Amino acid sequence: MREVRRRVVVTGAAGYVAGLILPGLRERYELVPLDVRAEDRAGNPVDGLVTADLTEQNRDAYRAHFAGADAVVHCAFVRPPDPGEDVPAPSSLGGITASVAGQGEARFRAEFANVEMAYNVFQTAREEGVRRVVMISSNHAADYYEPLILDGKCDVVTPAMQERAVGYYGWAKATYEHLGFIFAQGGPGEPALQNVQIRIGGPRETDMERAELGNMRQVRRGLAVYISRRDLVQLIVKSIETPDIRDRHGVPFQVFYGISGNSHAFWSIANARRVIGYAPQDSSEVRFHEQLARHLAAAAGDQ
Predict the structure, then answer these.
(1) What is the pLDDT of residues 191-237, one digit of tens each?
(2) For residue range 117-171, what is the model confidence (pLDDT) as tens digits?
(3) Other C-beta atoms lying within 10 Å of the C-beta of residue 55
(4) Which residue among 101, 180, 201, 259 sits deepest, i.e. has the most Cβ atoms within 10 Å of its Cβ?
(5) SS3 of 203, please?
(6) Selection from 173, 195, 44 nearest residue 35 by Cα
(7) Span 49-78, mean pLDDT?
């Protein structure tokens, strides 16, 4: 008897993160890739992509794409109309560079649209009987803690700690989590919508090269947050397929950090290991051992 493949909607399918995970997900699922554009950043068409604007308040415009789906992986993201005019999000190389006062109204409006889109995805998924939503959130939902860690004032951040965002980008991601918990509780006449929030770390292969030679603060950050493509796919697959994701109070809701098995990590993945059996295969120290050696030699020389 032929196995029935799960139907999984992937939003933002032409974006960077979706580009990392789509090949792995295609091997397991019947995918419904959605985006407002048909090509990725390099101008290449995305196989099977359906154009849909999930910021549209009229959910009837796209609900048919959710019908019959087992899960949704939400990667879609609204960018400010001119990101160059806004102070960037917290630096990927350590240290918070943005402040709320300096980010501009365009940044807020874009992130507000992202919050509305997250609501549309949750609500449409619930109305169409989707079992689970996996939300691609961000470590920036709690990025206030990062400089404290790099300055030796804090040791580790766990998903159970209070969200503390520095800028509007992180605020929007924290709001995704708050919305998700509301949907996961259900209510009178409303079924609970299971959902997982993944605070993705650094899904890039370039952070160690971009770090200033011998700058061990930047190096530590790069080593701590790295997640490989195959670990990211594993984390998402297990977030989709694990039968029971209820918390200790019975609410089907989880927040996981998205990093590999990095020994320099300062974000805890203990709950992802316990709840869904996440078992990262990669480690930043092994992956970037040559770059790390160069940084260590430069740092030793400076001293």
Answers:
(1) 999 999 999 999 999 999 999 999 999 999 999 999 999 999 999 99
(2) 999 999 999 999 999 999 999 999 999 999 999 999 999 999 999 999 999 999 9
(3) 13
(4) 259
(5) coil
(6) 44
(7) 97
List strands edge to edge, sheet with 71-74: 50-51, 30-35, 7-11, 71-74, 132-138, 194-200, 253-258
Is the pLDDT reported for residue 103 higher than 90? no
C-alpha–C-alpha distance, residues 135 and 11, integer Å: 10
Residue 155: exposure state from Cβ atoms within 10 A (0-12, 13-18, ≥19) = exposed
Give the confidence band of 187 by pLDDT, cuts at 50, 70, 90: confident
Q: How far is CA 231 from CA 140, 144, 267, in A?
A: 20, 25, 15
Alpha-carbon 129 to chain mean position: 23
Local structure of residue 71 (DSSP, 8 states): E
Distance from the first to the final alpha carbon of the chain: 66
Cα separation, 69 vs 76, in Å, equals 17
CA neighbor of 75 nearest in space, from 156, 173, 185, 207 = 173
- Angle (CA) 176-21-138 rounded to 5° is 30
Give the CA angle between residues 165, 295, 224 to the nearest 5°: 30
What is the b/e burial string over 75-84, where b = at least 16 CB atoms within 10 angstroms of the residue's CB?
bbbbebeeee
Contact between 26 and 6 (Cβ < 8 Å): no
Minimal CA–CA distance to 155: which of 145, 164, 163? 145
Query: What region, left, alpha or beta, does residue 99 occupy, with left being phi > 0 and alpha being psi -120 to 50 degrees?
Result: beta
Both tokens of 98, joined, read: 């943005």
In 3-state terms, what secondary structure has residue 91? coil
Those residues whose C-beta lies under 8 Å from the C-beta of residue 78, and which sit 6 or more positions away, are 55, 110, 111, 113, 114, 117
Whether residue 111 contacts residue 171, with contact meaning beta carbons closer than 8 Å, is answered with yes
**Tens digits of per-residue pLDDT, 238-279?**
999 999 999 999 999 999 999 999 999 999 999 999 999 999
Both tokens of residue 49?
A: 């992509």
